[in-house]
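quick one before i forget lol
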Amino acid sequence: MITFYTVISWLFFFSYWLLIAGVTLRILMKRRAVPSAMAWLLIIYILPLVGIIAYFLFGELYLGKRRAERAKSMQPYTTNWLKALQNYQHIFTTQNSDVAIPLFKLCERRQGIGGVKGNQLELLTHADDTLKILIQDIKRARHNIEMVFYIWQSGGLVDQVVESLIAAASRGVHCRLMLDSAGSRQFFCGSFPIKMRNAGIEIVEALKVNLFRVFLRRMDLRQHRKVILIDNFIAYTGSMNMVDPRCFKQNAGVGQWIDLMVRMEGPAATTIGIVYACDWEIETGERILPPPPCINKILSAQKSNRIIQVIASGPGFSEELIHQALLTVVYAARRQLIMTTPYFVPSDDLLHAICTAAHREVDVNIIVPRNNDSMMVRWASRSFFTELLESGVKIYQFKDGLLHSKSVLVDGQLSLIGTANLDMRSLWLNFEITLLVDDAIFGSTLAGIQDDYIAHSVLLDADQWAKRSFKSRITEQLFYFFSPLL
């Protein structure tokens, strides 16, 4: 019996270390960023069983077998659609500003489509205005309405959006909604989904959270895009979820959420439409490639020649493109760089690029909320402040609510607006979308909005920051350890 138990013990011991060695080898073979790899290895060796389970749950970007197969199978069709779009040469730009050229070339090379011109753009800074304008657009819709949101929560003006969608469906407009399962959990538990589906609106619960599939797909992968398409010509995107801020997270202690949306008319809606079509096919298996752009409408929009490039990220899309885009624009900055984000947990490469820009005497400004709804992100963000301040970066802490808008302005000319935060989840994991706008007039408008944010912010004083408590420093470094995983 002693021999038997000895053999069992050795087999268990051997299997245990074989498993740890296998996971270690898998982490090293993935060639992930060194800080991320080191964080995972430390967790696995300090808390072996917990660490291994956590790694299989959250360590790799795995979409799931069925979705991965759909993403792969749709690529030839998407490529052919993009090639066919090249026949509409009049919608593509042939000139960009000096600061935008490297980024637009990067995106064209990696996504197979260039920037498009002839777009009319409107920046929307107030949720009430955004929802009221959207309701009017829905009332005028004649053919189709497609939406994708991370969070959809009933209440306030959102209920009027629902009623307008039901009315649109009743007059024959094809309405599709794709909502993230975790973000819109409260919506799916309510009565509106049944009411909307009965009216003929297609509603898809994307990336369902299912404990029985916890090891078959990464459960914290989220559909984080916020996109609205109407009649393949009007499009919205930006940081705002489908919520009325007066009814959303009122007990979180951070104030109302402050968002930024872009409403556009023109061929940019066509390029956003292909992103939506890919998302829809990955989730449902149904192919809904958008029609080619309407030439008559585009010609009528030529009076406003805004140049736009669309960046889409997430499984099935160009890997690391948003991260590469951010690095490109930071290094391209010559005079000024202004960044707004609610969650600031940059990669080492992005942090180095921002600090280097400041050392090059670029006027670098970062605007973040003073109060944040995520305790972990709040402390992790603070761990980067010392290095930024020492480099000459100005850090503004917005005090009148949760500043949720995500924007970058480079030299007053090149604007980036979308759904991506400056954190690891947005840069490496979630489904995100970002608009690149190469236009000085649009940049001036965005600069005015950012100036207003600064006017309602407190500039972080380097001397005062250096006097923070030892306890705060320890807490910051503790959460910095987890920053590659946030």
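fyi The chain has three domains: 2-58, 65-95+114-306, 321-485.
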